[in-house]
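[#protein-structures] MJ: dropping Alpha/beta hydrolase fold protein here for a structure pass
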Amino acid sequence: MYEIKRISTLKWTTKVLVAGDRKSPAVILLHGGGPGANAEANWSNTMKDLSEHFYVIAPDLLGFGETSLPEPLPAGGLAWIGLRVEQTLALMEALDIKDANLVGNSMGGALALHLLLDAPGRFRKAVLMGSAGGQFGVTPELMRMLSFYQDPRHPRYREIIRSFVYDPTDTSLFPNFEGMVEQRYREAIREDLKRSYETMFNPPLPPLSPSALASIPHEVLLVHGRQDRVVPLEGSLYLLKNLCKAELVIYDRCGHWAQIERWDAMRAEISRFLLS
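AK: finished. C-alpha cells for Alpha/beta hydrolase fold protein:
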C-alpha cells in the first residue's frame, strides 16, 4: 500500500510514507498536531486511494512520530512551524519533486498555508481539512488537547480522541476504536515526544492575518466537519473570507477527522479539485 522511507535532510532524519507513480502529480499529506499524531495515524486509510492518481508523500512532521527531533527544541508555535516549512521543502529536494499539491489536516493545514506563503512557486493547489491557521474561538475540546500532558492518563486521552470524531461507536469507520486509542496513547506518552509537545504551543501558533491570506494566489479547497469540536467551522469561514481563491465544503455527521469520517465524499472532492 505504501513504502516507508527514512530521508536525511538538513539536521533531521524524517520518516516518510510514499505511494504511487513518481510520474504522477505529487501530493504531500501534512498530519495534525494532536498528542500521538503521525503520518500513519492520519493517512494510512487514504494512501492507496490517492496513489491511483498521485505520487503521495506523507512525512512524520518534526516533533511527531519517528522523525528525529531538533536540538535544541524550538519554543512556540511559530518556531516549530518554521522548521516544518524547512523540513517539507528539503524533503521535496531530496525526492526531486519540483512542485506539489498539499493536503493538510488541522495543524498540517496551517503548515500548508505557511508553505504557500514562503515558497509559492513550489506548490499547485491545497486542500485544508479542519484547518488551523484561521481565527476562531478556542473550544474546550481544543484546550483539553493542548493541556493533555498536565494529566496524561489513559482515560483522559480516550476522551480527547472521542471528541475528535462525530460518532466513535460507528464500527464501519472505527472497527477497533479502543485499539486505536491504545496505539495512539502509547505514542503520545513517549518521553521525547512529551518534551517536544510541551514547547510547541507555548506560545501557540497565531492565526494568519487577512493580508497574508489575501496574498496567497493558489486555489484552496477548504473541507470542514459541521460537528468539529476541536477546530470549529468559524476557522474555515475566516479562511474562506480572506483567501482570494477558496471554496468550502461542509460535511454533516463529521467531526475533526474528515479523512476518516467522510472519506467516501472527500476522496471524490480531492480528485475533482486537484485534477481539474
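MJ: nice. The chain is about 40% helix and 20% strand.
AK: one more thing. Residues 3-275 form a domain with the Rossmann fold fold (CATH 3.40.50.1820).
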